[in-house]
Every structure is written in structure tokens, then in C-alpha cells.
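The instructor's notes for this session suggest beginning with a concrete chain rather than abstract definitions. Hand out the sequence below and ask the class to guess, before any prediction is shown, which regions might be ordered.
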Amino acid sequence: MSIRKLIVEADGGSRGNPGAAGYGALVKDAITGQVLAETAEAIGRATNNVAEYKGLIAGLAAAQRIAPGASVEVRMDSKLVVEQMSGRWQIKHPDMRPLAEEARRLAGDLGAVRYTWIPRAQNSHADRLANEAMDAAARGESWEPREEEPEKASVAVPAWTAPTSQPTTTLLLRHGETPFSGEKRFAGIGDIPLTETGVVQAKAAARALAGWGIEAIVASPLRRCQDTAAEVAAVTGLEVRTEDGFRETDFGDWEGLTFAQAREGWPDGMDGWLSDWTVAPPGGESFADTARRVRTALDKLKVRHRHQTVLVVSHVTPIKTLVRYALEAPPLALYRMHLDVASLSSIDWYDDGPAVLKFLNDTHHHT
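After discussion, reveal the predicted structure:
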């Protein structure tokens, strides 16, 4: 094949970090956008960073097989890998050094290779391949390329067309009212109880969900979610499984404060937090940090409860994050959604990658 310009998109993930890990990569023609190759593999127990480097190596190897000497743009949502391979960051971890050397060796057999960071939402194809490989390994199988054309594989299934497979359905229930939610205060990892109104809301949600065919209940470890989930469990007869990944963001020094109080004490910090999802409250965690553990929790749920209807009892930020993932929306979409206490939302997740938001912030059961 004559020399051409290629694009490599690569990603890797770990369900546990370290945990069951896998990578995905694809090669595109930079001019036409045609997908020329896809590759994915489960790699056993590893960290996210190792899996991401493995995805890079697989993508470069595929590009070299397709067109030796081609110039390549590597696109990844791993800031670490992009900066290290670009030579701007040192590689200090011993596990990363041999992987980086292997990637450099492969890049040396190509033409000019440059590395570009892209948001996760723009790397959904490689991310899907990595998750397919991990899902296959969880089933005791090996990943196999799909029969359909690769460029069609990542096209979302519109809600008005017939589904391509049975989805895994997540019903997302925000916990009932607490003293903090009633007063519009930051409520993060503090173990805040439900108010009397919150208990009434949880019971109403449980009655509304009784006939929905729920097959499993997963809840944040925090008391307000556990108590809300217990009401649904009492109606359905199901056990509640705790998943730490679905807990609320740690708001650090802002815990228990109103928005006005936090702004008064940390005006610059508040401005940064409202404009950049990687900025954390003092002593807390960023929305980007929350998103990583929510994604891991979602991946575990989709493996453990594949094709089931699962109730997830959680908080504002994790639920908004799941909605953002489903819509492939940018991080700032988190600031453009509202969720009432004890509200219900629903997302269908399909095996081939797409997701469909069925409804958001439904509170009809409150009355």
C-alpha cells in the first residue's frame, strides 16, 4: 500500500485499577475517515495506564501492518500517555518504561508520528472496543471483530428504531430528601439521613417501581441511598448490593455549606470549579475523578447484570455522569442538568456500544 496519512485511536481500561483490564484500538484513513482495522484484547489484571499503553502499541502495530512508512496521528484521551510519548513528561513508573519503549520502536517503523489528546467522548470507538474485550473475557470468551462494517459499529441506535439487541437497563433513582438537600447545601460523602419527607418520597418511589420488573438493586454506600434502596427492596424482595463507585462526589471543605457560603470563602476556587470539571473543591475530588469511578462501576454492572433491569440508587453527580456518558455529551453538560430528590431516570445500554436515554428527572410518583 502506498504511503498515506493514518489516524490511530486507542484506549484502555481497568475495572478496579488494578483489575480486569483490556484495550481497544482502530486505524482510520485520515483523508476519508474509513476504518481500516480494529483490534481489542483483554490483558488480565492491570492498571488503566498499562491498558492504555497496550492499546497504543496495538494501534501502532496495526498501522505499521497497513502502511509502513505512513505518517500517523495518534488520538487518545489519556493525558499521561500523550504527554509522555510526546516527550513533555518523564516516565517514572517502571511498568510504563518498557511499554513506552515498545511504542517508540513501532513508531520508528512509521513516518512522522504525533500524539493528540482528545476528550473521552471523542474516543468512544476505541473505548467501546476495550469494553467489548473486557466483557468477552468476563464471559470466558475472546474478543472477535464484528461482522458489520467497522465505521457503522459505533453509530447510535435511535430511540425510534428497532433495537439491535436486548439492552441492559439502568433505572436511576436519586435518594430522597435530606436536611442538606432541603437547604441547598453541598452534600458529598457525609452520611446524612433522610428527612421524614425523604422517607415518604422513598416509599412512593418504591411503590411506583413495584411493577417495573427490576431484577437487581445497586446502591451507593451512603446512608441516604441505602435507606432509599431499602424501601424498594422491601417492596420487590430483592437484596441491595453496595457499589462504592456510585457514591457522591467528595466536596471536601465545602461539605455542608450553601453555594453562597462556599463562594464567599473560596471565590476563585468556585469559579474554577464551575468552569473546569478537573478542578476539585479544597480537600475534595473533581467531577473528572468521580467520572472515572462511575465509569468503572457502570462497566462492572454491565458485566454482572448483562441484559437485566437494574435499579441504581445514587446521587446527583453519578446520575448526571451516567446520562452524559449515554448521550456522549461533553463534561460541561453536567452543569446543564437538574435532578430532583427521589427522581427517576432511565438508560438502555446496548452491547455494541450505543445507549439510549429513555427519560430524565421523572417525579410523577411524588404526588
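Then share the key points. The first helix runs from residue 48 to 66. The chain has two domains: 5-153, 168-366.
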